[in-house]
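Section handout, structural biology tutorial.
Before the tutorial, make sure you can parse a SMILES string by hand: atoms, branches in parentheses, ring closures as digits. In the record below the ligand is calcium ion, and the chain has 336 residues. In the tutorial you will relate the predicted structure tokens back to the input. Do not try to memorize them.
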Amino acid sequence: MHTYLGLIVVVHLVLIAEASGSPKPCEKDCFSGKCINGSCVCDHGWVGDRCQHCQGRFKLTEPSGSLTDGPINYKYKTKCTWLIEGYPNAVLRLRFNHFATECSWDHMYIYDGDSVFSPMVAVFSGLVVPDSVGNETVPEVVTTSGYALLHFFSDAAYNLTGFNIAYSINSCPNNCSGHGRCSTANSMSGRMYCECEDYWKGEACHVPYCRQDCGSPGHGYCDLTGEKLCVCNDSWQGPDCSLPIPSTEAFWVVPSVKPSPQSLGRASHQALVHSGLMWVVGGYSFNYSYYHMVINYNLETSTWEAVAGGSGPLPRYGHSLALHQEELSLLAVPGY
Ligand SMILES: [Ca+2]
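Predicted structure of the complex:
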């Protein structure tokens, strides 16, 4: 009987000793997981000894948030997919706060919908850097189905820091660029839009107008009746009428062009300007098997026109294009 009691006491002491022993720590922090018995146990969708790499599928249902490949370089040969679920027909904005992948080998595909069979709206590969020092503008991708599917793929060699993409549902474009207020007032659909401060226009209040009051009254005046721009006097030109005619200085003009079916986005096309027309030949568009092989843009009227196909050359991309002896005969050297 004594022996039996003694055995129980010993077992009890052993149990107390085990319970009071501190758990074995992990050598390094676990990023997306918990440290259990000296090793990181990863949350769903994360892998690596520190749970530092995305791999697998994620579903995001909060009205705003962010997604990343992880805190350090992404993994070789990986696939990560995020489905952002808003609500039907909500506007969803994705902001590329950081993006660095191996150009042409590691890609981020973005679809406007809940699967890869939805329209593809963008593909990113390479580096996203601000236009200029102090310009904090980052690219925004917009989906209008209320959903977005992002798929990241990396190949077997070379990696970079990856990406950090913020998203929000029913927000204003580019946060109104710091030059306006985000509002739902006067919006039939209940969607948010930017109310711009004076002298800023555009969907995101990103376009300045009538800078320096157009040099009024000597150089020109601000016309607020239409597009809100400077109308320069005869001897002045430029967006703010600050350059004399003729000018030794080059300047940019942003034309006011409405999107049209003919101007459908394309890649690997060729373009040249001849007699006030910009000709665009060929190219590749991701979502449509049919597109206009030859289109032109009239620099005077700001309009696109498609040239009827028929007996012309077959659709192609990655080709070369040349103007022959200033005549309007375009030479399209084979591509794909
Ligand atoms: Ca790579």
